[in-house]
Recover the amino acids of this structure.
């Protein structure tokens, strides 16, 4: 018996001429370029190309060097993609500009560590694959596995920050057909696999045909899967009106702003009474529910019943124990409430309040001491239907949104992205919401204070949309659905399990060559 190994990958000349010194610029540039794959740009192939270039920068580097180049990629991605964090800290939390920018940079540096960890792991495993004659496995097994596991870790560790997951960039690509099966983490896996296959097709002449065929099959199958109807219409469609009052956060919480804020929402509501559903955005009422129930809520509920409308309102709700919640209230033929379960650190609550001490006094964010809701499922009764409810940031957590199924006939998201001004954040957030609709095979009704408000169908397509910073009410049709997609049944278990299996396979391949 003899032991043989595959011939090592022979890079094409232009890759061998790529000086390692260029990667000190190429790694962060690739991260920054990846932002262009997300909304509002939507250049989804660029995210795959950038990842392939980053992989080339990692090759031949030790664990430490790979960590640095991983961190540089993450710093480029997040430094450009979430720089809007400073807007809320500076303009709405009243932090000095230098402090707001400093905290934003610290946040970016910390989040980039996930990419540094991914780079370090690839730098440790890749050399063993090369020595064992399985260099190809680094591109098609190791890269996708480590990438997805890094994103998954970032999505839950320390409350999680699942923003700018690579899979979100594919909501309009052929790969989107896989979303109802694998979810956003699965799309990230397929996008990273595509990057690895692209690298292999360019770097290894002998593997070019096989890599290109695999790419073609991967993307063609996604396009075919988009034709499958995973869920079914349930009952008759109804008309929905989404209220977008376009009120600046700097004005909304002023003591004298309550009356004009309520009147703005009521005026838009009166024009559309009779619609089956009317939705107000997150904290549309800048006052506690018990303070406005008699003068506003009770009369409005009576009027809604008379006109045949159900109204869903974003409002802070205080319980008898003096805890208060970021809530949704449905009124009309019945009344129900939902309390936001996943709060935003430093926006809706201040973690480690006892440790950060005087820093707490810097923050002047209204309603920054919310308590989390504890409902088993994110469901809200709205007339004859159950809606899967999410408030603002909650809709970026796919495994939480899916918990509303199969009971939910459609999804509701209310938000207030005005905290981030005219930045990339509202368009990015809107893109993530579209993927939640596609993953679960449900219409999603999205009402926001300043935009983007929209009605999204079960395929993730935008039926009607009201642009940002316009006052008005968006009217469209909502079709209830029943049934479950594979993703809504099992969540992210399949892509995470696949990623772990792929990582294990690379570890096994790295320990031994082929035996013939």
């Amino acid at each position: 018996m003899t032991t043989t190994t595959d011939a090592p990958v022979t890079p094409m000349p232009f890759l061998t001429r790529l000086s390692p010194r260029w990667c000190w610029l190429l790694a962060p540039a690739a991260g920054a370029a990846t932002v262009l794959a997300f909304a509002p740009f939507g250049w989804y192939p660029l995210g795959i190309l950038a990842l392939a270039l980053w992989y080339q920068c990692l090759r031949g580097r030790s664990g430490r060097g790979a960590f640095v180049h991983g961190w540089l990629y993450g710093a480029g991605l997040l430094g450009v993609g979430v720089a809007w964090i400073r807007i809320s800290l500076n303009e709405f939390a009243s932090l000095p500009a230098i402090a707001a920018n400093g905290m934003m940079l610290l946040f970016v540096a910390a989040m980039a560590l996930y990419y540094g960890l991914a780079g370090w792991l690839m730098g440790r495993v890749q050399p063993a694959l090369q020595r064992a004659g399985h260099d190809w496995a680094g591109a098609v097994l190791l890269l996708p596995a480590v990438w997805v596991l890094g994103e998954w870790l970032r999505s839950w560790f320390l409350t999680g920050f699942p923003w700018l997951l690579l899979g979100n960039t594919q909501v309009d690509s052929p790969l989107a057909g896989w979303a109802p099966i694998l979810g956003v983490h699965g799309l990230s896996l397929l996008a990273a696999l595509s990057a690895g296959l692209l690298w292999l097709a360019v770097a290894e002449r002998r593997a070019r045909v096989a890599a290109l065929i695999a790419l073609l099959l991967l993307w063609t199958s996604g396009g075919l899967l988009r034709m499958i109807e995973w869920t079914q219409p349930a009952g008759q469609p109804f008309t929905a009106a989404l209220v977008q009052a376009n009120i600046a956060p700097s004005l909304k919480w002023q003591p004298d702003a309550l009356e004009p804020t309520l009147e703005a929402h009521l005026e838009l509501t009166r024009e559309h009474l009779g619609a089956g559903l009317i939705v107000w955005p997150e904290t549309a009422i800048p006052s506690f529910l018990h303070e406005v129930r008699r003068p506003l809520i009770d009369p409005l509920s009576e009027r809604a019943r008379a006109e045949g409308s159900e109204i869903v309102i974003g409002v802070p709700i205080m319980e008898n124990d003096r805890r208060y919640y970021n809530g949704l209230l449905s009124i009309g033929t019945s009344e129900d409430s939902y309390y936001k379960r996943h709060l935003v650190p430093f926006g809706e609550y201040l973690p480690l309040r006892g440790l950060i001490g005087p820093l707490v006094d810097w923050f002047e964010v209204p309603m920054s001491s919310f308590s989390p809701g504890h409902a088993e499922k994110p469901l809200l009764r709205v007339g004859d239907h159950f809606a899967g409810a999410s408030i603002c940031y909650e809709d970026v957590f796919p495994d939480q949104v899916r918990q509303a199924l199969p009971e939910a006939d459609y999804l509701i998201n209310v938000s207030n992205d005005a905290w981030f001004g005219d930045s990339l954040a509202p368009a990015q957030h809107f893109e993530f919401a579209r993927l939640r609709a596609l993953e679960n095979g449900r219409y999603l009704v999205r009402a926001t204070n300043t935009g983007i408000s929209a009605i999204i169908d079960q395929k993730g397509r935008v039926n009607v949309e009201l642009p940002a910073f316009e006052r008005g009410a968006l009217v469209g049709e909502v079709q209830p659905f029943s049934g479950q997609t594979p993703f809504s049944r099992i969540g992210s278990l399949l892509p995470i399990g696949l990623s772990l299996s792929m990582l294990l396979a690379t570890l096994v391949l790295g320990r031994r060559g082929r035996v013939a």
Summary: The CA atoms of residues 281 and 448 lie 5 Å apart. DSSP finds 18 helices and 16 strands in the chain.
